[in-house]
Amino acid sequence: MKMTVIGCGYLGATHAACMAELGHEVLGMDSDIDKVHTLNSGRAPFFERDLDGLLAKHTATGRLRFTASYADAAEFADLHFIGVGTPPQAGSNAYDLTHLFDAVRRLAPGLKAPAVVAVKSTVPVGTAPRVAELLREYAPAGDLVEVAWNPEFLRESFAVDDTLRPDRLVLGFNTTHSWAEALLRQAFEKIIESGTPTIVTDWATAELAKGAANSFLGTKISFINAMAEVCEASGANVAELADILGHDHRIGRHGMRPGLGFGGGCLPKDLAGFVTRADELDAGLAVGILREAAAVNARRRQRVIDLAHEELGTDLRGKRITVWGAAFKPETDDIRDSPALAVAQALHDLGATVTVTDPKALDNARKLHPELDYVEDPIAAVDDADLLLHLTEWHHFTTIDPKRLVTRAASPKVIDARGTLNTDQWREAGWMTRALGRP
Questions:
Q1: Residue 366: is it exposed, middle or buried by C-beta count within 10 angstroms (0-12/13-18/19+)?
Q2: What is the Cα–Cα distance from 47 to 356, expressed in whole angstroms?
Q3: Mean pLDDT score across all residues of the chain
Q4: Which residues form a coiled coil (predicted)?
Q5: Which residues share a beta bridge with 323?
Q6: Phi and psi dihedrals of 166, rounded to 5?
Q7: Directed axis angle between helix 33-40 and helix 51-61, to 10°?
Q8: pLDDT the model gives residue 148
Q9: Domain ranges of the chain
Q10: Binding site members for substrate
Q11: I need a labelling partner for 30 at 20 to 30 A (CA). Which of 10, 39, 73, 369 fits?
Q12: What average pLDDT does range 199-224 have in this prediction?
């Protein structure tokens, strides 16, 4: 098939490359000329595991290419995926749909009829009718352009695998959708034939799917972090508690990792956006648990700062603190709402000299937090440190021998906020160790 992908950030570039991998001819469209040039060279303008290989493979064959022209995209195919960003509005947790509506307006005039516009962007429930209205207004044959909703459930650093081998496929349509459904089933034929559960539903349910999924995941993470607070107060071990709970098949261990909490460009935004939309629908009382989940998540960052005070005193001026981690999670260079950088910035603002190291995210961190110090080598970053904070759980950090570090630090103290360091090994090497939710 021929298809387009409008918007080529994390979601769109990954979707375009994976659709090419499935055998389709794909044209990606993004208004950022520099991004288009980078993608056409077979590289992504961000780090996502396995993505560069797919981009290089399929741009070389011509099966995948990128453009900055809406007119070219509209003419290219009769199936158009939209994956533009929907960030929070300035001063609000509500979704900003400016990019989505602008993309629809600019794509619509050149659409061939009949056509399907399948939106993947995360939105507040009730957006699909507005997209359909814009298509009727701006497309020459608007009544022949159908709207479908195809939410994504990607995890950054696993986005390629999640696209090619998803755990479910959701297709949302209005009351009549036979032609649009047939087209999307053809697009995802290999995925469906592999046995992927495929749920065909209405617009509203499909719109709710991503926000509800992320809200539930955030609640699960915050629940185990709330238990970490109780464990610290009682002397219990939250890692062992999580294992005990996780063996109950109704609960499960996956996704229930105690530590510094969640961040990134999706989970916090989607939880907050879900709550905001519920308030607009006069259903705010139903999402009180989500408000508390967000509050628990925020407390984890403050808890690390409190522990730093416990180890270094109330006055952090002149103290040297090393932070292992800048990305919001490992295997990505994404620093959006990074818990690690939030803690690092707060400690800097309290007067400490903060040195940050990360395998992939330093360039992005420097742009957003130029007042922090940065060192490429995580071992050298520990030189003269009064305190080491382990804030992003890169595997590389867990393989470093703490004996190599103990004489480099001014004071061998470490706070493991992700719970992935071998604390027994670190203690044997001469380090004072603290870990969230553990004795």
A1: middle
A2: 19
A3: 96
A4: none
A5: 356, 389
A6: -70, 155
A7: 80
A8: 97
A9: 2-196, 211-296, 304-435
A10: 153-156, 210, 263, 329
A11: 369
A12: 96
| 48-106 tens-digit pLDDT | 999 999 999 999 999 999 999 999 999 999 999 999 999 999 999 999 999 999 999 99
- 100-146 pLDDT, tens digit each: 999 999 999 999 889 999 999 999 999 999 999 999 999 998 889 99
pLDDT tens digit string along 396-436?
999 999 999 999 999 999 999 999 999 999 999 999 999 99
Task: Classify 255 in phi/psi space as left (phi over 0), alpha (psi -120 to 50) or beta.
Answer: left
The string of DSSP letters for 71-129 reads: HHHHHH-SEEEE----PBPTTSSSB--HHHHHHHHHHGGG--SSEEEEE-S---TT-HH
From the candidate CATH numbers 3.40.50.300, 3.30.1300.10, 3.40.50.720, 3.20.20.70, the one assigned to the domain spanning 304-435: 3.40.50.720
Give the model's pLDDT for residue 177.
65
Whether the per-residue pLDDT at 175 is higher than 80: the answer is no
Q: Which positions make up the binding site for NAD(+)?
A: 30, 35, 86, 122, 156, 269, 336
The token pair at 200 is 């065909």
H or E element, residue 16? helix 10-21
Backbone angles phi, psi at 293, to 5 degrees: -60, -45
Token output for 401:
């021998």
Give the tokens for residue 54.
């797919």
One-letter amino acid at 118 equals: A
- DSSP alpha helices (H): ranges in 264-394? 267-280, 288-312, 339-349, 362-368
Looking only at the bridges linking them, the beta strands covering 413-416 and 387-390 are parallel
* pTM of model > 0.85: yes
Helix axes 10-21, 51-61, angle to 10 degrees: 60
Catalytic residues: 266
